[in-house]
Write a structure and sequence with these properties.
Elements: H1 7-31, H2 49-52, E1 76-78, H3 88-92, E2 98-104, E3 110-111, E4 117-118, E5 120-128, H4 137-141, E6 147-149, E7 164-166, H5 172-192
Antiparallel strand pairs: 1-6, 2-5, 3-4, 5-7
């Protein structure tokens, strides 16, 4: 039965609500009297994981952490040895947090772990985790599965530069060399391409305009 909306009725209702909250708090404190240490914590996949968390009032983070799902969406990582620089992750990213500068190679220079040919170098492969919305779309479209989300979820920092991760493995001199190789390959390819032969076809003769008869529709006589 609800108390009447009077002065003393409101005070009684406030104390009743406060009493419920305190009882819930003290019940958790009693259960946490002998809190389990980190060694006895269950993995999140365990069927009794959530039951074992009852009574825990606090943890000494980051020295003590609760288990997290292995398939969660956390910090991105790119394995450059398996990257073919296909640019699909850049196109699918809804917040434009991935930046790639590709350099084409005249020949195949390696293969990924799944046997895919590598023909494009990555002069730049940067990921701005400060922009990332952790949607996981980039890892879904990656054809070689080189782009993954690691279990690292705590990478907080006082500087936004610490959220900018660079995965490109080419030095400035190597980038310049690869660009020069591709430019020379393009020039040699254009030089080897024969010029188009002059056309020997006769000039086209304009066709005469088609005859269209003029149809005259007689007007009906005007009655007097």
């Amino acid at each position: 039965m609800k108390s009447a909306h009077t002065y003393w009725g409101n005070i009684f209702e406030a104390f009743t609500s406060l009493n419920k909250g305190l009882l819930l708090t003290f019940s958790h404190l009693l259960k946490a009297g002998r809190r389990n240490n980190s060694k006895s914590r269950l993995n999140i996949k365990h069927s009794e994981y959530f039951q074992s968390q009852q009574g825990i009032s606090t943890i000494q983070f980051p020295h003590e952490q609760l288990p997290i799902p292995e398939t969660g969406r956390y910090q991105l990582h790119n394995e450059m040895d398996d990257c073919i620089v296909c640019d699909k992750c850049v196109k699918v990213c809804p917040v434009n947090c991935i930046t790639i500068e590709p350099i084409r190679s005249p020949t195949e220079f390696g293969k990924t772990s799944d046997g895919t040919s590598k023909r494009i170098y990555a002069a730049t492969f940067d990921i701005d985790m400060g922009k990332c919305c952790f949607c996981g779309l980039c890892t879904t479209v990656c054809p070689t599965e080189c782009l993954t989300m690691t279990p690292t979820f705590d990478f907080s920092s006082y500087s936004m530069d610490k959220h900018y991760f660079k995965f490109g493995n080419l030095s400035e001199s190597e980038v310049a060399t690869k660009k020069d190789e591709w430019a020379k390959f393009q020039e040699a390819k254009q030089a080897a391409t024969p010029a188009p032969a002059a056309s020997t076809d006769k000039p086209a003769v304009p066709k005469p305009a088609a005859f269209k008869p003029k149809i005259v529709i007689p007007k009906p006589p005007v009655s007097e």
